[in-house]
Amino acid sequence: MNLKKILLLLIISSSIQISWIQPDKEFKQLSLKVIPDHDFYIDETEITNVNYREYLAYLKKKGRMEEYKAAYPDTTVWHNDLAYNEPYARYYLTHPAYSNYPVVGVSLEQARKYCEWRTYVVNKTLRMRGSNVDSVVFRLPTEKEWREAYIGTQLNQVLYPWGYDELRMKGSKKRDDGLFRANIRTGNGVFAHLNDEGFITLPVGSYWPNSIGLYNMVGNVSEWVEEGKLMGSNWNDGAYRGSYDYEPAVEDSGFIASYAGFRCVMEMVKITDIKKKEHKLNKRFFKKYFISLYEDSMGQTSAAQYECTNELFQYYLKATNKSNPIQDQNWAQYTPYLKYQQHSTSDEFRHHPVVNVSYEDAVHFCEWLTGVYREVIDDPNAVIKLPTEKEWLYAARQKRQNVMYPWGGPCTRNSKGAFIANFCPDLEEFLIRDSSGKWVYVYPENEMERRRKADGTEFTAPVDSYYPNHIDIYNIAGNAAEMLETKGTTKGGSWNSPELYLQNNISQTYDEPRADVGFRVFLITS
Questions:
Q1: Cα dihedral sign, 154-157-159-163
Q2: How far is CA 456 from the centre of its chain?
Q3: Are 423 and 495 in contact (CB under 8 A)?
Q4: Where are the domains of the chain?
Q5: Which residue, 302, 181, 303, is CA-closest to 242?
Q6: Could you tell me which residues come within 8 angstroms of residue 70 by beta carbon, excluding any fewer than 6 positions away?
Q7: Of 43, 39, 38, 36, which is closest to residue 15 (Cα–Cα)?
Q8: Residue 506 contacts by C-beta under 8 Å, 6 or more apart in sequence?
Q9: How far from the centroid of its chain's Cα atoms is residue 490's Cα?
Q10: What are residue 371's phi and psi, to 5 degrees?
């Protein structure tokens, strides 16, 4: 079963439906939404009482009574907020009438434990079904992730997730116009809870979703994030706490309340190994793969049109019966998302440049490909290798000795303002004068992320992305810095480089496998 098929099974209207153990007929499937341009999914709604009861039922069924007791929500939280509240304390968690209401009275640690359990049972189910999604992780969102989900497709400047500052519906169907957009406290006194139709919490699908289909990012319950903060307003609080720019305090580790709940995020850690289909390394492949550069006394020199891909490198490993030497763990210093630690083997990255390989592994790959080429083309003198600086420069600029970039120069954008390569550009919006009058770039805390994403790709991109130079060689500047024959030297810059290192006459050094260093092969024939 390939990735396309598994996504068709899991994705319904851009949401992923995952169900596991079903302790009773009340069970409601959880739906996860894709966050645009990000590497995680998030629950469409807060975790409900029936979702949490499923967790409790599992612990009880397995006889894990100490864990069951530790996981049980504190229902006495209702005693703190209302005049007559015994029915809520007694029935809110367990009565079928409240099954689809958000679970409350759960501490930060209890929410984390629920995520751990959900990870276990979903992975178990995926294995039982023989799914291509080999591993997922559920956890609480970070504050940054929660805010990104809150915004959805709106601009960063919005005050609320529905895109404007007013708390009531406007410009909608006539029957909805003027209704409150969220379950919040709208004034003083107990009846202030009723103005928005909710006395306490309401079912998790109430009100209107944000631009990516997430319900109650403002109102209903405030939500735990990994840093120990409760994000968003709730049924017992004013709207101001739900605004985008509100900064909640870090709560005590054991804090619980009748207005505190949570939702989970999910990462797909491993989605299928690269297909074991046979790579057709025949005459047609090599003829298309290499672009002729020049001929001299050494013979004809050609360059690969693309950087070496994960798919081609994995084919080499299979053909030579080698274990995978790629150090995918190096991605951890650039991104917390676990899928990148499957960069070399995940089907998602099959057409991306292979990175995190050693110089020796690249040389061994070239030796293997040389043998394949000699056999297929019947040329016993052919050599496939890493390029010298002279060979690389010719592929980048040909006879144009003074051009700054492979595409000519001196700009890194085309006439329409789009970046020409995958790198880490400086952004004019952050260029200011310092106290001495000198122009300097001043970035916010997420400087590198914003810069890397500015060209459309945060990390590596497929090897045929962006614009080729005038002889159709792709990404000889940007994407992955390319090893030279001289060990420890690269040319062309990478997704992690400022524009200076994209220039033809600039080199960089490396001393070990890196997430921003790959290679391109060159061919010498007689």
A1: negative
A2: 14
A3: yes
A4: 3-270, 273-525
A5: 181
A6: 110, 113
A7: 43
A8: 491, 493, 500
A9: 28
A10: -60, -40
pLDDT, residue 10, reads 37
Which residue numbers in the chain have pLDDT < 50? 1-28
Q: What is the CATH number of domain 273-525?
A: 3.90.1580.10
122-136 burial string, b = 16+ CB within 10 Å, else e?
bbeebeeeebbbbbb
In order of 166, 176, 182, 227, 400, the CA distances from 179 in angstroms are 11, 6, 9, 33, 66
Structure tokens of 375? 């056999």
Q: What CATH number belongs to 3-270?
A: 3.90.1580.10
What Å distances lie between residue 521 and 117, 243, 284, CA to CA? 47, 53, 17
- Among candidate residues 43, 9, 26, 25, the one with its CA nearest the CA of residue 133: 9
For the chain, how long is the longest CA-to-CA vector?
A: 95
Count CB neighbours of 28 within 10 A: 16
SS3 507: strand
Residue 86: helix, strand or coil by DSSP? helix
Given this model, what pLDDT does residue 383 score?
97
One-letter amino acid at 298 equals: M
Alpha helices in 215-331 (DSSP H): 283-289, 310-319
DSSP characters over 200-236: S---TT-S---TTS---SSSSSEEE-TTSBEES--TT
CA trace torsion 123, 124, 130, 132 (10° rounding): 0
Neighbours of 175 (CB within 10 A): 8
Residue matched to tokens 């305090």: 249
What is the DSSP track for 108-159? HHHHHHHHHHHHHHHHHHHHHTT-SEEEEEEEPPPHHHHHHHHHTTS-TT-S
C-alpha closest to that of 263 among 43, 110, 38: 43
CA–CA–CA angle 500, 504, 507 (5° rounding): 70
**pLDDT at res. 137:** 92
Instruction: Dig out the tokens for 189 from the structure.
Output: 């006194």
- Determine the pLDDT at residue 439: 77
Question: Tokens standing for 82?
Answer: 């209302």
Render pLDDT for 309-345 as a digit per residue (tens, 0 to 9). 999 999 999 999 999 999 999 999 999 898 899 999 9
Same fold, 3-270 and 273-525: yes
pLDDT number for residue 6? 36
Give the contacts of 455 (CB within 8 A, at least 6 positions apart): 419, 421, 422, 423, 425
Question: Residue 448 to residues 39, 335, 452, 501: CA-CA distances in angstroms?
Answer: 17, 11, 6, 16
What confidence tens digit (pLDDT) does each residue in 385-396 have?
999 999 999 999
SS3 content of the chain, % helix, strand, coil (to 5): 30, 15, 55
Give the pLDDT score at 410: 87
Q: Does residue 141 contact residue 226 with C-beta atoms inside 8 Å?
A: yes
